[in-house]
Amino acid sequence: MANDPSHYGQQPGMAPAHMPPGVPGYGMGQDGVPGPETEHRKQEIGDILQQIMTITDQSLDEAQARSELRKHTLNCHRMKPALFQVLCEIKEKTVLSIRGAQEEEAPDPQLMRLDNMLIAEGVAGPEKGGGSSAASTASQAVSGGGPGTPENAIEHSDYRAKLAQIRQIYHTELEKYEQACSEFTTHVVNLLREQSRTRPIAPKEIDRMVSIIRRKFTAIELQLKQSTCEAVMILRSRFLDARRKRRNFSKQATEVLNEYFYSHLSNPYPSEEAKEELARKCQITVSQVSLFFIKRVVILLCSLVVLLASLSVCGQVSNWFGNKRIRYKKNIGKAQEEANLYAAKTAAAAATASNTQQSPEPPSDPGASNYNPLGSRGSSGQLSGGQGMYMSLNGENQYPTASSVGDNSQGYSGEAMPSSTSGMYDSHMGQPPQWFFHDSPCAISSI
DNA sequence: TTTCATGATTGGCT
DNA sequence: AGCCAATCATGAAA
Q1: Is residue A3 part of a domain?
Q2: Residue A98 CA to B1 C1' — how many Å?
Q3: What is the mean pLDDT of chain A?
């Protein structure tokens, strides 16, 4: 009404409707100068305003009073309980029964899975044993239940600490959600009970509302449980990854083990005392040392079997030789350069020695140097004299082909490669080239 | 994350 | 079929 434009369109000079008749303008004389008449009108206007205010107040109060009166009348009406009961029954038979049927809820399988997982991981359920058992399960998953090292213990406790942290956060959040759910449910129930005095609300309706609220909070809990499970999974995978990384020995340990292996080639498998010593040096277990040497010996023997018995050369060996040839050629330029460098150094040393000792020993021929051009792994070892069976850097490439394996006419002369293992590594033969062991196909044992 | 070594694959050539 | 060269995939080391 107040916004009705028609109220703003009164004709000029007309007094407002609520004004007493005969009151022109706004209490001003024709000339605009206030006089005794004006004062009287002011008084009248003041009275009118007062009346308006009073009327407004009265109407509000009355409205309230009327509302309360209506409520009271309704509450006290003798037919009210019967009427509400009928209405509630109708509601239950129609809307509530239908909805109720739809909302028959079975236990959520996802929630059950999450709950089971949280209990299994030691996040939910009894605290003692949960976390530690899960941690030990995780640690043994990789270690194979072997003897624990101090490092394992550190990782173990680290895992447990992190799991305990997750557990604490989970329980705090869960408690928070449960409290909020409880408070909100109580609030809504009270509200509905209050409203049930003025409108028909069946007890079932209240129950239904409570279950709706619980479902909503369950959905939130589901998210919490899911994210907790994810956190545990991430923690676990990190823990396992960290352990998996230690699957290989450190470079230093490998060097120590290799050194022993190559310096005991005639009998490369160490004694118990030697194993203990190596384990101490390499900071690994004795069983790990044993495993290293078992693998080495097996690889060595398999390589020898494949190479010396002229067995059918499988694709793997073929690839190996192919790659070796190509990379040998690629590296040969660089190798030649480095060989010359090495030879120059040797020559310089020999010259110095001859100057001091007057030794007739001639300097080494750069082309016949013992340098091994097969990459860093192959070049790490020093070859004794006469071992350059494929290292003819200044001449034709005598590198073996797959088809030449076992064929002594190419590369494998009886002088360079004995036909049997016996005496192969005798002192007069020196050691085989380092690449022979270093570059043996790793998976060759699977042949 | 980058670099390196190495096994494997692919296509062309003889 | 065997070899060569280029390239990819992968694990280890720096």
Answers
A1: no
A2: 62
A3: 61
